[in-house]
User: Fold these one by one.
Assistant:
Number 1:
Amino acid sequence: MKKVIIFSTASQLYGSERGMLNLSRALKARFDVWAVLNKRGLLQQRLEAEGIRVKVFPLSYLAFSFSPFFWVKNVALFFVNLMYFVYFIKDRNIDLVCSNNSLLLFPLFVSVLTRRPLIAFFRENYNRRFIQKSLAKLFLFFSHRLIFVSQNLRDLSEVKEKDAEVLYDCFSPSDFRYVEDVKRKWGIPEGKIVVSYISRLHPSKGQREFLEAVSRALSSIKRDVLFVVAGDTAPKSLRLHLYRRRLLSFIHCQSLQERVVLAGFRNINELLSASDIIAYCPQKDEPWGLNILEALCWQKKTVLDIRGGLREITEEFDTSLVRQPFSSGALAEEINRFSPVKQRRFVVPEKFSFAAYRAKLGEIISKI
C-alpha cells in the first residue's frame, strides 16, 4: 500500500481541522496515512480513533506578529521542519505529500527536495488581496494539484478553473448524533429559546456585531431567550484574547449577563441539539462555512449574511431554513415566531456527502 503524509497546523476540531479529518478518512482506503500535527489535542484523538498514525511535531506556519522572537523562532523551525521531514519521508518511503492549508509553506519545499508529488489545500481568505493572489500562485507553482474548498475562494484567488480543483468539505451521516436533554444538563429552563453563534472567536467572524444586534433587538423580543456565543481563540494569540475581553466588556456594559453566554469550545452535537436558531454575520467573505453547513444539515433555522462560500452552501437547502440578510430586526422576528419542533432528520445534500468527497478526491489523485 502506498503511503501519504498530511501536514496540519492546529489540534482542535475547527473548520480546517475537520477538513483534515475528512481528508485522512478518505485517503485511508487507498493509502497508509501519516498525519503530522503541531500539538496534541482533540484532532489527534479523533485521527487515532480512525486508525491513522499521528506524529506531533512543532511546525513553522504563517501568522501575523509584531514579536521578533516569533519570527526568529518561526524561521528556525522552517529549516528544522525542512531537514527533518525530508529525512522522514525518504526513510519511510512515503509516496505523496499533502498540505492541509496555505499556512504551511515548508511542505512545498519538502515535496521538491524529496521529489514527491504534492496535493495542496487552500482554505484561507486573507485580508490583503495581494497576499491571497501571491500565495495562491506560489502553491500553484509548487503543487501537483491545488485544491480550493469553494468556487468563491478560487475566484478570490484569481486562479483559473483549469488550473485548480474545488473540493467541498463534507459530512458523513455518522457525524450527526442528536443528544437528549442537553438544555436540562446545561441548566437551561424548559421552554427557553437558545440562539447560537458558532465560530472561532475572531473579529472577522462577527461576534461583536452579533452582540450589538442582540442589544438592539432585545426591546422587540417577546420570548424567553438565551444567546450562546460558542467558540474559542487561538491559545497563544494576545490579539484574540484581547478581542474576547472586549466581548465580555461589552456584555457587562450592556447588562447582557443574564441573556448572553460566551460558552467557549463545545461538543458540536450537544451544541446543535440544544440550539433552536443559528445566527451568523461574518465581516468578510467566508472561504467555506462548515458551521453553517452543519446547522442546515441539522435543519436549524439560520439567520445570516450570505458571504463568500456560504452562498454555495445555502443554494442546496430549502429556502425556508435560511433568513438573510442578518439584522437585529430579522433576529427578533425569527425568535418571536419560533415554534418548537421535534428533532428532524439530518439532511446532507449529495454534493456535500462523504461519498461525493471521496470520489472526487480519487479523481484528483488519479491525475497525478
Number 2:
Amino acid sequence: MNEVRRFIFFIFVVNGAGYLVFVDQHYNAAGWYVWIKYIILAASFLFLTISFLAAKKIYFKREVAVTFFLWASIFSIPVLFGADAFRSFQYIVPIFSLVLFADWRHSMTGKYWWLIFCLTILGALFEYYWLGGFERFHPTGYRGVSIFVNPNNFGISIVILSAVAILKNYANKCLILVVTFFLVIYSGSKTALIMLIVLFICTLNVKVVTKSLFFIVSPILIISGFIFGGSIGYSLLESSELTSFFIRMSYASDFFSGVQNLMMPSVDSTSYYVDNAYLQLWIDLGFISAISLVFFMAFLINFARGYRTLFLLFFLASLTTNIFYIAPVSYFFWLTVGDYIRSKVQTDVEGKRLLGEKNNV
C-alpha cells in the first residue's frame, strides 16, 4: 500500500512532463490536461484513506491532527468575512500532505528521487533541443521549465529535492550540488540560485569562521547568477537585466499604495497580485492568516532541529513565489512539516522512556 501511494505521489510530482508532449495545454486553465493533476491528487487521497483503514499503525498522530485542523481553520475562516472560497480551497488542499507519508524524506529518496532527477534532466534536454523552450518565459533570455511547468517552480523544486537527498545523506553531496547548479542555471530562477548557495553553505562541514567567509563571497556569486542565470546557450550573455525583480517590486508597491481594507484586501474593488507568499496570503485570506504563517515559519526555522535548512529554503522561496498553493512546492512544504512533527514526537517519547528507565535504576 505504501509503495502504491509513493508511486502515485511520484506521478503527481512529475505530471508536468505531459506539457512537453501536449504543448497546447501548457498554461491552459480550460484545457483537459489540468484535470490529470486533479485525478492523480484524488487518487492519492483515495489510497491514503484506504491505507488508514488497512494500516496497523496510523500516521495521523494527535500533533499532526492539531496542526492540520489549526491551519485548515486559519485558511477557511476568512471565507466567512468575504475571502474567495476557491482560493481558500487551494491553500487547504496541500495541508493534507501532512499525513501523506510517515517520513516523506525517506519515501522520496531511493528510486523515486533518482527517477525525478533523471526525468528532469531528460525533460530539460528535450525542451531545449526539440521544442526550443516555451516562448512565454523568454522576455530577456532563454528560461527552461523541464517537467515543472514554469521556471521558478522548476528551480525551487529541484533545490528542495536536492536538499532532501543531501540532508538524508542519500547521495554524493558534490554530485548533487553540481547537477542541481546546472539545472538551476537552465531554469534561470534567481530565487533558486540563492537557495542553492544557501544550501551549499549549510552543507559545508567546516568551522563557523570559514562559513562566514562564504557569506562574504555569496553576494558576488548571487550578482553573477543574476547576470548569467536568466539565460542559456546562445542567449546566455544577453540576459543581464533584473526585469522580473523590478516587476515584482511594482506589484508590491501597487498593493501597498492601493489597498483600502488592510484586514481583508480581497473585498476591495481592486484585485491585487504579488509574487510574495505572505503578501499574497494577506491579499487572499487576510492579515491574520498571513501573520500567522509568518510566525509559524519563523518558529520552524529557529526550532525545527534537523529541518532548519529545509525550512530556511522554503522561506527564501516564499519571498518571491507563492509557494503555499502552487504544486508541487506547497505539498513539499507540508510534507516536511508533517515529517518534522513526527520526528519531534518520536524524540520526545524516546526521551521520556530513557528518563523513566534512568529513574527506575
Number 3:
Amino acid sequence: MLKNIIKIVSLSIILFTLTGCNSNYMSLNDMAIVSSIIIDKKDDQYITHIEIYKEEKSENKSKKESYFVKGKAKHIKDAIDNASLLVGKNLYMVHLNAIILSKSAIDNNMEIVFNYLSRRIQLNSNYYILVTDNVENLLKSKDEDNPILGEKIKNLTEFSSNNGAIYKYDFLEKLNNYLNPRIDVVLNKINTKDKNIKIHEAYYFNENKIKGTLNQEEVKLTSLFKNDNNIFLDFDIDNKYYILKIDESNTKYDLKNGITIKINAIANLDSVHSDYDLTKKSTITKMNKHAEISLERRYKDLFNKLKNSKSDILTINDYIYRIKGYQKYDFFNENINIEINLTISKKGLMQNTIGGYTNGQEK
C-alpha cells in the first residue's frame, strides 16, 4: 500500500511539473481560486469547507475577500466535489495555503487523508497541514485585517516557525514522514478563541492515532533537537528569569554503548531579570551551567512522555537504522542519555553593552 502511494506521489509531481499552470487551457475567470480547505468528520460523513477567493471591485479600489462553500459525503473526494458544485466553477488549488483537519477527521484516519491528498496532482505541495479542535470557531475567525483565512493561517505559521515556536513544514515533508514506518507524524494545532487564532502547540501521533499534545516548550525542544535555530527558551534561577536565543545547534549520536545523544548549542542572552549582574563572568557561567542542567531534565521528561506513547517524532529509531542498518538499540526500550553542551556567546549584545567579559577575562 505504502509503495503504491509513493509511486502515485512521484508520478503526480512529475505530471504537475510537466503540465504547469496553463495545462488545462482554462482562464482564471472560469476557475474558483482556493485559499484553504477544512475537513471535518461526523457520523461517518466527511464535511468539507472550501474557502474561495473573491475580489470586490469598485471605482479605483479592489478589495480581497473570501467565502466558504460546504460539501458532505462518505468520502473526502466526493465531499469536495459536492462543495465545488455550489461554486459553479472548477477549483484552482495552485495557490492553496492550508488544509485544516478536525481531530475527528485525522484521528485513526490518517491513511485515508494522506492517501487522498497524495493523489491530487492539482494541489501545490507548499501548503501547510494543521489540526483544529473547533471547526465552527475557526470558520468565524476571519476579520477585517485578515479577510482570507488561508492566508492568515499561513502567515501565522511562518511567523511562529521563524521564531522557533512551532514546526515549519509543508505537505510533502509530512507525507515523507508518514510513509517512513520508523517516524511518527507531528501536526501543528490551531487554537481559536473569538476571532483570535493561536498556533503554539502540536499533536503527536503513533501510526494512525493521536497520542497527545506537545505544549509550546516541548515543541521548541523538538525543534532544537532537529537543529532548528532562532529558538527562544526560558529559564530561571531562584525566580529570576532569563531567556536564551539559540543561534546554532548540532545533534550527535553515540551508539557505542546504548544511546547517548549530545546537543551542542550556541546561544545569546535575549532578556534577563534586573537582579542579574552581567558584569561578572561568574554570572554568565552560572546561567550557562543552569541552562544545561535544565535542558537535560526537560529532554528526559519529553523522552519519557514519547516513550509512554510509543511515538518517535524525534526520528531516533530512523537515525539508528540508517547508521547501523538494523535496530540493535530502540528508542522505546533503551535508557537514553542526553548531554547538553551550551555556550552563551560572548558576542551577545547584552555582554558587550553592559560590560561582560572578553576572551574569558572579566572586565
